[in-house]
Design a protein that fits this description.
The complex is a heterodimer of chains A (77) and B (146).
Chain A (H helix, E strand, L loop, with lengths): L1 E6 L4 H17 L3 E6 L2 H5 L8 E4 L2 E5 L5 H7 L2
Parallel strand pairs in A: 1-2
Antiparallel strand pairs in A: 1-3, 3-4
Chain B lengths: L6 E2 L1 H9 L3 E4 L3 H6 L1 E2 L5 E2 L2 H7 L9 E4 L4 H12 L5 E4 L2 H7 L4 E2 L40
Parallel strand pairs in B: 1-6, 2-4, 2-5, 5-6
Antiparallel strand pairs in B: 3-7
């Protein structure tokens, strides 16, 4: 199971990113563990200056803006 | 997980700067034009440019990050901690609190600021000089912080 974290203060883009990941995972039938990280110190512990950030299995794969669907599909491949 | 950022008030910041710390203002140019910190050796890097420009900051001096109210500079403080800076602190209350204490500023709005007590004060009364007063508990080694 992929461990995914969406880093951000709860902004609209963060929520849209979370929804997109959930939707793509469901469509592809990929089991994921999705967590939202909203606390500044924890977000900054990944060195993310632009949110939302996305961490997959401990690695930062995205920072700033809602990721494209194609990008999300690659993470879940 | 990063440690909690060290936070110091404007009074302590002013003292640290006098002792050799560098104030780093992460506000935008328009904000600085309106009201700027008037301290020596200040470094100005807007938060949006920090990721590219943090290498300009000295690692051998204490850095105190500041913005308008203390939020953006807290993020900047954590970013520098992530990048391995160990002598960094955030100035709580930012320019709003600094100016409300009558500390040195310059710029278009400076004529309205000295002595103003409307933003970010201690919340426990005012000090005539704005310096050296303490309200509430001070952290160890921070004798004049509110």
């Amino acid at each position: 199971m992929k461990e995914i974290k969406v880093l951000g203060p709860g902004c609209a883009n963060c929520k849209n990113t979370t929804s997109l990941i959930e939707r793509v995972a469901q469509e592809k039938g990929v089991p994921i563990s999705l967590a939202k990280v909203e606390e500044l110190r924890e977000i900054m512990s990944y060195g993310i200056m632009s949110t939302p950030g996305v961490v997959v299995d401990g690695k930062v794969v995205h920072a700033g803006g809602v990721p494209s669907r194609e990008k999300v599909e690659l993470w879940l491949a | 997980m990063l440690d909690e950022a060290r936070q110091i008030c404007p009074t302590t910041t002013r003292r640290r700067v006098a002792e050799g710390a560098v104030l780093v203002d992460v506000r935008e140019q328009a904000e600085i034009d309106r009201l700027a910190f008037d301290v020596p050796d200040i470094i100005r890097i807007p938060l949006g440019e920090l990721e590219k420009r943090y290498v300009e900051l000295p690692r051998d001096r204490e850095l105190v990050l500041a913005c308008q109210s203390g939020g953006r500079s807290l993020k900047a403080t954590y970013f520098l901690m992530f990048q391995g800076f160990d002598k960094v602190a955030n100035m709580e209350g930012g320019m709003a609190k600094w100016a409300s204490k009558g500390f040195p500023v310059k710029g278009e709005a400076s004529s309205q600021q000295p002595g103003a007590q409307d933003a970010g004060g201690c919340g426990c009364g005012t000090s005539p000089s704005g310096e050296g007063s303490c309200c509430g508990s001070a952290a160890p080694g921070e004798p004049s912080c509110c």
